[in-house]
Design brief:
Low-confidence stretches: none
Shape: extended
Mean pLDDT: 91
Radius of gyration: 23 Å
Strand content: 25-35%
Order of helices and strands: EEEEHHEEEEHEEEHHH
Strand order of the largest sheet: 1-2-4-3
Length: about 210
């Protein structure tokens, strides 16, 4: 089955089960995958698709944006094409390209850059943070759902290593956010007021990081 959305024709793969509800997903294969009840007719499926065109386009955009991102190397808010050359001795950036001997070299370089930049930004921000708090331990690791975490038990701040893909103002915002949790272990108005003291444009930054 085919379905046309905004002038583009997509395959629709239907899987029938003993379901009460109908579920629609758009996958990396470029097709809409529908799970529905055995007795759901083709005309009913088309009607539901027609009624949900805005959400369908959002699904398509999300998958396509993720695919474009997977083919790029992101570093401090910029995207680069990866150029692999076995004669390269050190990673370097030139215009919109990043050059490396292989992906192992690039991964090692990125890890070192992440530690260096996060440490530098943390020290800078903490030294300008006028609240009466003790300096927490800084940790870095990849996390699936959070950009940063303040742990009261061991007084540590953990930053998501994926933050290295964002520009400096977003890295700074996350550090300020977590430092502010030391004073206010919640998301109260007092907490956001403190965040705004050191990051006045935090609302626009939060919005851009969710997109």
């Amino acid at each position: 089955m085919k379905y046309t959305l905004n002038g583009i024709s997509y395959d629709v793969i239907i899987e029938k089960k003993n379901n009460k509800n109908l579920y629609i997903r758009f996958k990396e294969d470029g097709a809409f995958h529908i799970t529905c009840n055995y007795f759901t007719s083709k005309s009913s499926i088309i009607k539901i698709l027609d009624e949900n065109k805005v959400n369908l386009q959002k699904m398509v955009n999300k998958v396509e944006n993720r695919a474009r991102k997977d083919n790029k190397f992101f570093y401090l808010g910029n995207s680069y094409d990866i150029i692999i050359n076995e004669d390269i001795e050190n990673v370097f950036i030139e215009n919109d390209k990043i050059f490396t001997k292989d992906m192992t070299m690039l991964d090692k370089w990125l890890k070192e850059e992440t530690i260096r930049i996060f440490d530098e930004r943390y020290v800078y921000i903490f030294n300008h943070y006028n609240e009466n708090i003790k300096s927490p331990i800084l940790k870095i690791r990849q996390m699936k759902t959070r950009w940063g975490v303040y742990n009261r038990a061991n007084h540590s701040i953990t930053l998501n290593s994926k933050l290295i893909e964002f520009d400096i103002d977003k890295i700074d915002y996350v550090i300020i956010h977590e430092l502010s949790h030391i004073k206010h272990f919640n998301h109260s108005s007092d907490f956001w007021s403190l965040v705004g003291k050191y990051c006045p444009n935090y609302k626009s930054i939060r919005k851009s990081m969710r997109e």
